[in-house]
Amino acid sequence: MDKRTSYFEDITLLKDRPVKGWSLLGLLLFGLIPFVLAEYQVFIANLVLVNIIIILGLNVLVGNTGQISLGHGGFVAIGAYMTVILDEGWLPFLPSLILAGFVAAIFGFILGIPSLRLEGPYLAVATLGFGLAVTIVIGRLSFFGGHMGIMPPQLEVWGMKLTTNSHLYYLTLGIALVLGVFARLLIKSRIGRAFSAIRDSDIAAASLGVNVVRYKTMSFAFSAFYAGIGGGIWAYVLGFISPGNFTPVLSILLLSMVVVGGLGTITGSVLGATVITLLNLQGEKIQEVPLIGPFFEWVSVHYMSISGLPNINFVFMGLTVILIILFEPLGLFGIWMRIKIYFKTWPF
Amino acid sequence: MKQPMLNIKNIETYYDRILALKGISLSIENGSVTAVLGNNGAGKTTILQTVIGLLDDQPEKGSIFFQGRDITGKETVDIVKMGIGYVPEGREVFQELSVLENLMAGGYMHNSASAKETIEKVYRYFPVLKERQKQMAGTLSGGEQQMLAISRALMNRPQLLFLDEPSLGLSPLLVDQLFDIIHQIAKDGLTVLLVEQNANKALAIADYGYILENGRFVASGTVEQLKRDEDVQEFYLGIKAEESVRATQRYKRKRRWN
Amino acid sequence: MIGQLIMTGIVAGSIYALVALAMSLTYKSSEVANFAQGEMAMFSTYVAFVMLATYQLPFWVAFGGSLLFAFLLGLFLHLAIIRRAKDPNVLNLLIITLGFQVFLYGLAGWKWGSEQRVLKIPVSQTETVEFAGLIISQLNLATILVAILLMISVYILLRFTKLGLAIKATQQNETAAKINGIPTRRIVAITFGISSVIGAVAGILMAPITTLDPNMMIEPLLKGFAAAVLGGFNSLAGVVCGAFILGIVESLFGFYISTEFKSIVAFLIIVIVLYFKPSGLFGTHYTRKV
């Protein structure tokens, strides 16, 4: 928006004083959340943060590198189960989490290999198959608790027992910040540019010396790592995980968050994850919303079925996704940009 | 004065933000062969695409009249229905359909009985197509595909035919044969607008010509007039006017028409 | 025993084939892999159910009504939604169809709840017929026959009718089709309509076998999609072959190796096949021009 005068300016994280100021303020506000919101709402905030982490990674893969993944739920599952199993007796929490992330990353790398040859619907099917396979395998092996699922042990970090949602919140916020900054740095780095080159034209990129094989698999691994970390934390936020958490619906949800938020941008990831997560959760309990809730109840009784009302969640989600893509392909980030531009060029 | 069959008035066409046609005016008389010459990127194909309605929301400015009716900005399907045929650059035949199916597709707007009649006519111009009628279009040679593309456009029995670089990618011998047939088709009554890079062949069969450079017409007139123009001779016909002093060209002869 | 298994596989394959055919038809027309196919079929099946159960209409009327609804739904998807996309790249179109699928899923769940319903059809599920030494239920036999009949109809449509020619021409080269006077927008919309009808038939065939609930088409959709990829999206005959192969292999795998992991066998095969033939078994590989 403001003219950049040097390349360094383009890639630095905090550009100038106003940006630094806003960032600090934002940090402060986020830090205060557990004090202002009720316990249950902090729980929701945790869910949002978990999704933000996952989407930060997925967006790099889909938005920056231009690949499709309909099976990212699989990586989330891997991260979740791995973390819990390792934490149960082998390693403390943080190392478990990180190791689980790396395990997910390895699987991401493996999934990246077919991506070298496939694109479009073919790649979609391959990733879909992967996601489904993970769910099925986890569900059938009793080592993973089978259909019943497993419960993570008491969360303990550096000797402190984290028992409440608020404790978890700060931990998750910290991790999210670190990962967010890292993702941002990555996008603006040489590697990030290689990703973009692949997205725009992988043949041209290859002819310019970009090692497509290396970067494509790297991108998959990177996004899988983030998904794994997110999954690991998710297990502790929920307090319980089972295969039913990781169906293809999850993968579709994640992909929607990326697209609705805005491809290829950090802000987009945050916005998309937040909005869709909240929409999803609230939709399930639509009756509690003032005004709108009773209206839909009334419609249900007269035209639809009242028992099916929670499904309205999906109606909203589907509609939102379609409308965003039709009218604002840049997603929420695009809308945010428009607002910024409008105010910047006000009063014209 | 009789109304020209096609009258293009001052059209401007944009490709995204690039102004490709900067005020083009052109008129075509019934029964004539008009050639539009120019190098790559001059905008020749853009003119045809604009007229036939393939570019959305174009032309930005100006108007196009066909047989007295305003066709500016209309849908391709409607324009083609009025009697304009288009043979695109690069042939664009339906690769996975047979020769016969390609022709039937060309005759889509007619019922199959009259289409079959037209097919017979077309086979008279291009007998090789009849031989290969069951063959898949993608397996034909370049020249045969060109003939197929032209025949397919003829299936609609147009009054005006747009030919976009028919000589592209063909051997000189084939180009000669092809242009003979095109000349014959024109003599049989079809009005032709021919866009070509091969100026010699084009001017050989045309009545009128226009020279396009960078989106503007820089010369126009009857073919005799154009052939006599020294600039046209040097830059488009390859006839050098004079040797320079030391038998090497020190500087290129300047164009006089800007 | 193996004959019986193959027969089961063919029945399943018939349904996958219809789904795969439907997806391939729209993919060839508009580069859109229509993920909403499954839910569209499911919704149309519900329409049939409503006509049968609530309005007590005779079966064939309900069947026809459902197909009509499916056709209109396909038109709607294309004209009202896909045509409006500002930036129609692969990912966006994919997400749009996913969004539509989720929307329909929610709508169906909201309207009819998640209880399972029974779709009454005039063919018995329990009475059996003997065929080539194998025992097959009337329903399964009907499924195979209807599916084959539909596939043949589509073949005839594409090969011998003017509409079929227009569809093929539009699929291969939209610009060239336009300049020959083919109304491409209408043709693609009709293609979506036809594809939706095929999907609806698949749904109606499936409902008596499993049950009618909003989830019923999810697995067939995935399998049908996988079959289409296996056979190669570009070739209609290929996707049908892929579907039957998938059905049979799945059935055999389920019995001889493990019923539990039967579902992922589909995807395993696909990943392996795609590794060696990235365009599917019968797909033609178009080299990309840069």
UniProtKB/TrEMBL annotation, chain A:
It holds the Pfam family BPD_transp_2. Keywords: Cell membrane, Membrane, Transmembrane, Transmembrane helix. Its main location: membrane. The keyword DNA-binding does not apply. The chain crosses the membrane at residues 21-37, 43-62, 69-86, 92-111, 123-148, 168-187, 220-241, 253-279, 315-336. InterPro entries: ABC_transp_permease, LivM-like. One of its GO terms (molecular function) is branched-chain amino acid transmembrane transporter activity. It is a multi-pass membrane protein. It is found in: Cell membrane. GO terms for cellular component: plasma membrane. The keyword Transmembrane helix applies. This is Branched-chain amino acid transport system permease protein.
UniProtKB/TrEMBL annotation, chain B:
Keywords: Amino-acid transport, ATP-binding, Nucleotide-binding, Transport. Pfam families: ABC_tran (PF00005). GO terms for molecular function: ATP binding; ATP hydrolysis activity; branched-chain amino acid transmembrane transporter activity. GO terms for biological process: L-amino acid transport. InterPro entries: AAA+_ATPase, ABC_transporter-like_ATP-bd, ABC_transporter-like_CS, BCAA_Transport_ATP-bd_LivF, P-loop_NTPase. Residues 6-239 form the ABC transporter domain. It comes from the Bacteria. Gene3D superfamilies: P-loop containing nucleotide triphosphate hydrolases (3.40.50.300). Belongs to the ABC transporter superfamily. This is Branched-chain amino acid transport system ATP-binding protein. It comes from Flagellimonas meridianipacifica.
UniProtKB/TrEMBL annotation, chain C:
The keyword Transmembrane applies. The keyword Transferase does not apply. Belongs to the binding-protein-dependent transport system permease family. LivHM subfamily. One of its GO terms (cellular component) is plasma membrane. It is found in: Cell membrane. GO terms for molecular function: transmembrane transporter activity. One of its GO terms (biological process) is amino acid transport. The chain crosses the membrane at residues 6-25, 32-53, 59-81, 93-112, 132-158, 187-209, 221-246, 253-276. This is Branched-chain amino acid transport system permease protein. It comes from the Bacteria. It is a multi-pass membrane protein. It comes from Flagellimonas meridianipacifica. Keywords: Amino-acid transport, Cell membrane, Membrane, Transmembrane, Transmembrane helix, Transport. Its main location: membrane.
